[in-house]
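SUBJECT: A protein chain and its fold
Encoding: whole-number codes for local backbone shapes
Chain under study, with its fold:
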Amino acid sequence: MLRKIAWGLILVSGLCRGAAPISLVFEDAPIGQVLQALAEYQQLNLMVAPEVDGSLTLRLQDVPWQQALELVMKMGRLSIEREGNVMLVFPEEREQEKQQRAEAEREAAELNSPLHTKTVMFKYADAAALNTSLQNERSRLMTARGSVTLDTRTNALLLRDTQKALDQTIRWLQQLDVPLEQVEIAAQIVTISEESLRELGVNWGLNGEEQVAGALRASQLRVDLGVARPAGMLGLTLAKLDGRLLDLELSALEREHQADIIASPRLFTSHQQTASIKQGTEIPYEVATGNSGSTTMEFKEAVLGMEVTPVVQGNGRILLKLHISQNVPGRTMRSGENEVLTIDKQEIDTQVALKDGQTLALGGIFQQQSATGQTRVPLLGEIPLLGGLFRHSVREQKRRELVIFITPRLIRSD
């Protein structure tokens, strides 16, 4: 089908006007005439505003009618509205002016709207933290006449604004007032022999899938001594094990005198909130105050300390951010007429991901224990002079390791 309209042609392929593509050929045609041709093809009525002017030259081959209309509107910087089978066409500036008038009317209505006051109390979130977040979003949630007052006594915010802005702001605040996930951190600080550690299933170092998935590599904590077969290792080492029966196993080893439980702290904390554990002493030392020669006594910690910040992840795992310090009394040094006790420090900051209820073992701090004794043959060993043939001295060396077991567990709320 070939139709000639004014300054151009519309070529229609097929018989179905709604689905068939069209071809347009216009040369320097008034834009109103192009729109008239498109409207006539779809049997639509057309109203063009007086401000619509200009001409177009176009050649479109086999394009959908809707795409052709959008291209013409884009090139002519026009806007269109449909009311039934009538197309209303006017310049984009008119649409912008319409939006500006609507915005001005909305602002005027807000200025004339009465202000209401609402107190929002929070069950879980900190009102001061929410107030800071609200100030960042205030221009989007509240009007220019609105105000926010923080009440730390009742953990609440006092809002004053129009009813519409209040409803919007309260919904936004309620979405943030959710409880943080609670985590129980159970720790066991024990001294234990290497044989007993192996019985517990401790295998120092992360490997296999855990080495890839974990946030920590054991090699980052261990410092080799530079020999083929070192007798020891400096620094802390890590291992993961199932902690469900750990308490029972440690209690059994303690009854058999194979382990000594130094402390068993148990802490409760929240998501991204730090919990700390310390075990040790404070060492006093003198500090000069001014030029008069007077001194004051202060204390320096020499403790085995651990700070844990749990981060609850969405995959059922808990990321532990760990700060571990082992500060022990060192050697004595002379400072003038006084003797000063030094403190040997060893500190590590790291993080490791665990499953809920999985246990992290931290080791690498060794203790040497020596014991001397004597064995003798009854009666014969007590004979003067000759008794030495029937008795001999025994010296026993025991090496034990200080190990910290950490087990995080999520606290399920009903």
In short: DSSP finds nine helices and 22 strands in the chain.
